[in-house]
Amino acid sequence: MNPARNPRSSYLNFKPGTTRILSATALVSLHGSFLLKFLLVQPIRGLELLVSVLALLGMVTAVLVVLSAYNFQAHAPKAQIDERELLQRNEAYFRTYQYMISAVLLGLLIMEFWERVTGWTISVHQLGNFLTVLFFSGLVMPATVLAWQDREDPSE
């Protein structure tokens, strides 16, 4: 294939370790900001700033993972990846599906438990924050799984 027409070349070619760090940062930051914001009942200026910084960090690193070559593999047409990459992609989507179903179930259980224990109802805003975290997490998960399954060549 002509390198000028290679669709992979338009993606960021991070090493597996770099993509792993970016994806872990994205997921931890997104989930951390959600949990802190969820538990932030009274406005505390320093904590509100931390929540905002974590959310921004999570979204920026998620976008970097989406721009990585692993995301190309996750979404490329079958004709543009080989059989091994197709099998890896199928595994990544299966793991993403498991993660998303688990996250939704856990989130719903926690929200139900929260309402029963505290008597406070989950607001539409809190639910929207939860869906935002799920959206960005689901967006990066296939590339994340591919990066974590990739074996780095130590000679590089």
List keywords for this structure.
156 residues, mainly alpha, 0% strand
Structure, described:
By secondary structure, the chain is mainly α. It is elongated, with a radius of gyration of 18 Å. The two termini are about 25 Å apart. Helix 1 packs antiparallel against helix 2 and helix 4 packs antiparallel against helix 5. It is about 75% helix and about 0% strand.
Q: Topology, pairings included?
A:
Elements: H1 16-39, H2 45-66, H3 69-75, H4 83-118, H5 124-149
Helix pairs in contact: 1-2, 1-5, 2-5, 3-5, 4-5
Number of helices: 5
**In angstroms, what is the radius of gyration?**
18 Å
Share of residues in strands:
under 5%
Could you give the count of β-strands?
Answer: 0
Major sheet details:
none
Structural class: mainly alpha
In the predicted model, the low-confidence regions spanning at least 5 consecutive residues are none
User: What number is the mean pLDDT?
Assistant: 88
Q: Note the run of SSEs as H and E.
A: HHHHH
- State the share of residues found in helices, binned by percent: over 70%
Structure summarized in a few sentences:
The chain has 156 residues and is mainly alpha-helical. It has helices spanning 16-39, 45-66, 69-75, 83-118, 124-149. The two termini are 24 Å apart.
